[in-house]
Give the backbone structure.
Amino acid sequence: MSECTLDDCFNLTQDKFCTHHLLSLENLKTGFLKWKKAYGRSISQKKYLTQLIDTENMSSGLYIQEVAAYLLKNKIELNA
Ligand SMILES: [Zn+2]
């Protein structure tokens, strides 16, 4: 067991992320696919993640926002 990859998360996990953040990552992947379907393929992942971590967008939830920020910071593709 080791700590979750996210800097401020100290939950122990056998995977890269703890269960909370792993679930959030899955939700982000699903959400991005829905977003692309709704707005067209021209919508970038960066734009998708940026609007999620917008502080006024409280509906996304803290775990989601933390994972979104991590993906943005490390330039990780949701579905390469
Ligand atoms: Zn975590």
